[in-house]
Amino acid sequence: MAQKSLIQVAGGIALFAAVWLGASFYLGRNAERELAERVQKTETDCGVRLNNLQQQSGLLSASGTLELQVGDLCNTDPDGKYWVVADVQYNINHLILPGSVMRFNWTLRQRPESGQGGPGLQFSGSGHSAFSGTLFSEIASTELSGEADDASWRVEPLTGRVEAGERSLNLSLQVPRFTARGDGNALDLQGVGLQLNLQDRELGLGSSSFTIDKVATGTGSGERLAVASETVRNGDRIDAKILYALGGLDAMGYSARDLAVEIAVRGLYAESVKTLAEIARESKSFRNLTQEENKRYRKAVKQAINRGFSTGITKLSGSVGNAEQQSGLNGQLTIEVKPNADPDADIQLAKMLQSSGQVSVTGNAIGEEQKNQWLEMGVAKAGADGIQAGFDYSAGILKTNDRIVEEPWLQQTLAETDAQINRFLNEADSAAPAAGLEHVIDSPTEAAAGDSAAAPPQAAEPEPGTPAEPQSVSMVGRVSYSESGAMLESADGRRLYFAVDSEVGQLIVGLCSEGETCAVTALVDGDGQIKAIQQLSAVAAAEPEAGAVPAVPAATVNVQPSFDCAKAASKVELLICGSHELAAADAELAGLYHNAMAAAADSDALVAAQRNWIKTVRNQCVDEPCLAEAYRNRIAELSH
Q1: The domain containing residue 80 runs over which residues?
Q2: 182 Cβ neighbours under 8 A, 6+ residues apart
Q3: Quick check: is 500 in a domain?
Q4: 356-389 burial: b if 16+ Cβ within 10 Å, else e
Q5: Residue 200: inside a domain, yes or no?
Q6: HSE on the CB side for 404, CA within 13 Å?
Q7: How many domains are there within the chain?
Q8: Which residue, of 87, 109, 142, is where some domain finishes?
C-alpha cells in the first residue's frame, strides 16, 4: 500500500514536472515567435528598426543577435539617415519560476562610424518577464571617453532601469558626470537624469523629465536645469504642459534666479488626437497617406479645432540682473479657440479666437531711460513697482495697455488664415486653389497727417451715362439670408446687399450666421451692392464698452469734417464722422491750419507739428471726450 502511494506521489510529481517543463517550452517558443514578429513589424518604421534576427533555440533557453537602427530612416538622403547602428546579443532562460515567466540578459554595442576608431556606446542589462507580460530590465553602460586633436570627452558609467507593459513604459536613466574640453572651452555636466513614465504610449499620456544638477562652462555656471512634461486625459479631452526651469545662472557678470516658463495646451479633443496618432503611425509620420487616410486626417484636424481648446504660456517668472541691480519678471499668455456648435463646419478663427497676455517687470535692472522710452512709445505703462504691458483680444476688438487698437489687418489676417485653413481641410481631392482673400481690397490707410486737416480736393463729376464709382461705406448691421437675397440691415433700416455665392458673400457667410451682427467697411455701388470688403468683423451680442462706438456712415452727419466720411476707415475718423461737435471742430481746425500754412515762415515745421499731433495725441483717443479735448487744445494753439 505504501509502495502504491509512493508510486502515485512520484507519478504526480512527474506529471507536474512534465506540465511545468512543457509550459516553459511552449511559452519559450511563443516568446521567440513574438520577438520575430516584432522585428518584422519594424522593417518599415521611420524611427527605430530591428533587422537581421538570428536565433538559436534550446529546450528551455534561446540566444541570438539582431541589428538596431535609430535615425531618420525614411529619409532617402543617406547623410543623417542613421544616427545609431548597433549590434544586440541576448540570452533567454524560459524555465517558469514563481516570480517570472522567463529571465534574460543582453548587451548592445554601437558600430563605430566610418573613418572613426575607438569603441562606441556599450550597454548591458538583465531582467525578467512577469506573468502579466510586463518586462523588467536593469541598464548599465561602460565608461565612454575619447580624444581628437586637442579635444577630449568623458561620460561616466550610466545606470538605469526600464519597465515595459502592453501600453505602458517606465524608464529611468542617470549619468553622474559628462565632461568635454577643447579649443579653449570646457563643459562639465553633473547629475544628468532622464525619467519617463507613460501610461498610454499610443496617446502619449504620462510624464517625463530631463534634469541636470549642475552645469559649468568656461564663461559661466548654472544649476537645477530641468525640462518636464505631463499629458493627462480628462474625459474626452487631453491636457498637456511642458515646463522649462533653471534654478540659477551666473555668466559674464549677470545672474538669473528661479527662471521658469510653462507652456500648456488644454482641452484637445481626445478622439482627434487618437486618430492623428494612428494615421501618423501607419503612414510613417504622414509621409505616405492613402486618399481615405488623407480625408480622415483632415477631418480629425478640423474637429480638433472646432471642438475648441486653449494654449499659451501659463507661467513666466524669475529674476535677472547683476551684482548691483535686480529685476523680477512675471507674465502669462492665453490663446483660446472657442468651440463651434458644428464640429464639421468650416474653421472660423475670426469668430472663435480670443486671447490675452500680461507681462510685468519690477526692480532696477532696466534703466530709467529705457523705461521712459517704452512708456512714451506706449509699449508699456507704469505699474506699482515697475512697468507692465498687456493686451486683450475678444469679439474682434484688440486692446493694448487698455487702449483700443484700430488695426484692420488683424481681422483681415484671421479671415485670410481661415480661408487658407479651410482650403486645405476641404480640398483633399483637388489641388486647385479655392477662392480666398486674394481679391479683398486692403483697408485704406489714414490720410497723411499734414493733409488730413486740409479740405480734400473735390472729385470730378462723372460724365452723363457713366456709372458712379463705388463708395466706401461703414455700417453695423444684422445679417439676413432669404430667397430674395442676402443683406446687412442696420438698426435704422439702411441695407447693403450681397450675393451669397460671391467672394464677398463667402467671407460674410464664413464670419456671421443668420441673425448675427457684423461690422463692415466696404466699397458699395449706387444700388447698395457690396463690391469689395475693406474691413469685416463680428460684433458680440454683449453691450459695447464705453468708447466702443460702431462705425457710422457719413449720411448721419450734418457738418462735414476736413476729410471724406465716405472713406473713413480708422476708429478716430469714424468717431469724428459720428459726432456733429467733433466734425465741426475738425473743420474749424482745418481752416486755422490752412491760414497758418499761408502765413508760416517755416511751413515744413508746421506740417511736422501737425502730423505729430495727429499721431501722438488725436489718434491715441478711444472716445469722444478725449477727441473733444484734443481738438480744443490744438485749436487754441493755432489761434495764437
Answers
A1: 13-142
A2: 148, 149, 150, 151, 152
A3: yes
A4: bbbbbbbeebbeeeebeebeeeeebeeeeebbbb
A5: no
A6: 20
A7: 2
A8: 142
The residue whose grid cell reads 485704406 is 444
Task: Compute the chain's Rg from CA coordinates.
Answer: 36
3-state class of 376 per DSSP? helix
Strands (E), 94-134: 102-110, 122-129
Give Cβ neighbours of residue 600 (< 8 Å, ≥ 6 apart).
606
Handedness of CA 628, 634, 638, 640 (dihedral sign): positive
Segments of 117-200 assigned E as strands: 122-129, 135-141, 144-148, 151-155, 159-164, 169-182, 185-200
CB 31, CB 94: distance < 8 Å: yes
In contact, 149 and 182? CB cutoff 8 Å? yes
**Beta carbons of 486 and 440 less than 8 angstroms apart:** no
- Report how far residue 195's alpha carbon sits from residue 170's, in angstroms, rounded to the nearest whole number: 8
Angle at 497 between CA 491 and CA 501, to 5 degrees: 130
Cell numbers of 520, please? 463692415
Does any domain span residue 59?
yes
Share of the chain above pLDDT 90, in %: 17
User: Phi and psi dihedrals of 287, rounded to 5?
Assistant: -80, -30
At position 140, the amino acid (one-letter code) is A
Please give the model's pTM, rounded to 2 decimal places.
Answer: 0.60
Mean pLDDT over the full length of the chain: 78
Side chain identity at 135, as an amino acid letter?
A: L
- Sequence letter at residue 364: N
pLDDT band at 8 (very low <50, low <70, confident <90, very high): low
Q: Using pLDDT thresholds of 50, 70 and 90, give the confidence band for residue 114.
A: low
Cell of 485: 437675397
CA distances from 92 to 24, 136, 200 (A): 12, 13, 28
Q: Residue 473 is placed in which grid cell? A: 461705406
| Residue 40 domain-assigned (yes or no) | yes
Residue 447 is predicted with a pLDDT of 36
Domain end (from 88, 107, 142)? 142
Element (H, E) at 62: strand 61-71
Amino acid identity at 424: F
Q: What are phi and psi of 374, to 5 degrees?
A: -65, -40
How far is Cα 620 from Cα 636, in angstroms, rounded to an integer? 19
> What span, in angstroms and rounded, lies between the C-alpha atoms of 582 and 446?
17
Alpha carbons 56 and 66: distance in angstroms, whole number: 12
Return d(Cα 625, Cα 623) in angstroms, integer.
6
